[in-house]
Amino acid sequence: MHKVLENLRYSKSHEWANLKDGTISVGISDYASHHIGDVVFVDLPEVGRHFNQGEVFGAVESVKAAADLYSPVSGTVMAVNEVLLDTPEALNEDAYANWIMVLKPDNLTELDILLSPKAYQDHCAKEQE
Amino acid sequence: MKQTHLYDQHVKLGAKMSEYAGYQMPIEYRGISIEHEAVRQRAGVFDVSHMGEIRVLGNDAAVFLNDVFTNDIYLMTPHQILYGMLCYPHGGIVDDLLVYQKGENDYLLVVNAANKEKDYAWLVERSTSCSVQIIDESDQYDEIALQGPEAQNILEKTLGISLKKLGFYHFEEQIYQGAPILISRTGYTGEDGFEIYLGEDSCKALWKQLVEEMNVEPCGLGARDTLRFEAALPLYGHELSDSITPLEAGLGFAVKMYKDFIGRDALLEQKENGIPRKIVGIELLDRGIPRQGYRVLIEGKEIGALTTGYMIPTTKKPLGLALVQSEYAKTGQMVSIEIRGKLVSAIIRDKKFYEKKYQR
């Protein structure tokens, strides 16, 4: 059974977003990390780049395949988690403790489009059918 | 969707299953990296029952096959195996396959699962004026591949026979638990090993013995692909297709220009006027993993595309095979690979990512 944290918002493409002090950290859900399998590489975005909501900002890759990452909100990259370059498997160990990037969001109302924990749980259940 | 006769075994072992060529196939059990390493270090066992088997027999079997096959059927003796291709008249590849000579004018063709219907139809269409029988025997044969440096020891112990005299690309018929099986010293991993063709009951019994008694690592299609890639063995749909010729794919050793076969004229023309593209090795110099379809560029100009790419599980090297214009197919040529809109620098290199360990 995969974990869904209560304090986060989720995208249908399995990223989570965490609003704190006006910035949003972004990662992948526990469900996604299981689905991808053993993560061997994380393709991080460049600091300073701007992404629109839903735009590809990087990828999480297993031996077999690359899974694109989609920005859950529009914003500018303030930081990336470089620890993941050397220990990509951290995403399998704890997908919520390991953020991938921090965004300075353009517009906080975009968070409202994202799924609540309950709605995300239902979304995953539907995908698994 | 079809299942192989080992489906229940795969589920019991906790395999991740996925559709491949119309079959529910195991992709990985304990993990691609573990399985890849097991085959390189000791041994791994694969369910490859999805492969197609087409029997060609009759008075004209040799003549007919030699006319559609790029390699020379007459180089074979019974119990020998030959690798080669079926080509279209324009030189593109219908499929790559192994031909097993069972007897005089009696051959078994082992073809790619995804191509078996196409191959069968292609052969039948071309055989109308010949005295041959072409039979799709795919449903009669299950297939297990046992690969790795310990494969011979393990199979000898399991079957209670000696395989010392079974040469590379040769096969022999044996009896296993009262049923006939065919053992060939072939494989798709770059290691020594065997491919064993057998009926349903024998297949289930041998799989169980290898996995449960001999402790051989069960391996899925995931590791099968990383292993064949590391050994630079081509896969149809990647390095081979109806728009890539055997010469472009670097398979000239299995194309005999001195005899006639469908596609020869086109290949001869390529040989004389220059082969337009070539499959080369690619190594990334920056972080990233090359994948099929990524573009290969030099100073913004596209010169080709990746056909397969991986971060090799054992060495962690980001390597690829790519089909590029021949003028740039030089070792040491600097190129860029476009990955999600970003350019990553890479170098063209030989395809010898791994030194093959065949027993000759």
Portion of residues within helices of chain A: 10-25%
Q: Oligomerization state of this entry? A: heterodimer
CATH second-level architecture of the largest domain in chain B? 2-Layer Sandwich
- CATH topology description of the largest domain in chain B: Gyrase A, domain 2
Number of domains of chain B: 3
Query: Can you tell me the overall shape of chain B?
Result: globular
CATH class category of the largest domain in chain B: Alpha Beta
Q: Would you tell me the overall average pLDDT of chain A?
A: 96
Question: How many beta-strand runs of chain A?
Answer: 9
Uncertain residue segments of chain B: none
Largest sheet report of chain A: 6 strands, antiparallel
Question: Structurally, how many domains make up the residues of chain A?
Answer: 1
State which percent range the strand residues of chain A make up.
25-35%
Query: Radius of gyration of chain A from the CA trace?
Result: 13 Å
What is the CATH level 1 assignment of chain A? Mainly Beta
Give the largest interface.
A-B, 16 and 19 residues
- Terminal Cα span of chain B: 39 Å
Query: In sequence order, what are the helices and strands of chain B, one letter per element?
Result: EHEEHEEHEEEHEEHEEEHEHHEEEEEE
Fold and architecture overview:
- The complex is a heterodimer of chains A (129) and B (360).
- With 129 residues, chain A is α+β, with helices and mostly antiparallel strands.
- Chain A has a single domain (9-128), classed as OB fold (Dihydrolipoamide Acetyltransferase, E2P).
- Chain A contains four helices and nine strands; from the N terminus they run βββαβββββααβα.
- In chain A, the strands form two sheets. In chain A, strands 1-2-3-9-8-5 form a six-stranded antiparallel β-sheet. In chain A, strands 4-6-7 form a three-stranded antiparallel β-sheet.
- The mean pLDDT of chain A is 96.
- By secondary structure, chain B is α+β, with helices and mostly antiparallel strands.
- Chain B has three domains: 2-47 and 141-230, 2-Layer Sandwich (Gyrase A, domain 2), CATH 3.30.1360; 52-137, Alpha-Beta Plaits (2-Layer Sandwich), CATH 3.30.70; 276-360, Aminomethyltransferase beta-barrel domains (Elongation Factor Tu (Ef-tu), domain 3), CATH 2.40.30.
- Helix content of chain B is 22%, strand content 34%.
- Chain B has helices at residues 7-12, 32-41, 61-68, 116-126, 151-159, 200-213, 221-230, 264-273, and strands at residues 2-3, 16-20, 23-28, 44-47, 52-57, 81-87, 93-103, 106-111, 133-136, 142-147, 171-176, 179-184, 193-198, 217-219, 277-284, 295-298, 301-311, 318-325, 334-339, 342-349.
- In chain B, the strands form four sheets. Chain B has a six-stranded mixed β-sheet, sandwiched between helices.
- In chain B, helix 2 (32-41) packs across helix 7.
- The radius of gyration of chain B is 21 Å and the shape is globular.
- Chains A and B meet through strand 4 and strand 6 of A and helix 7 of B.
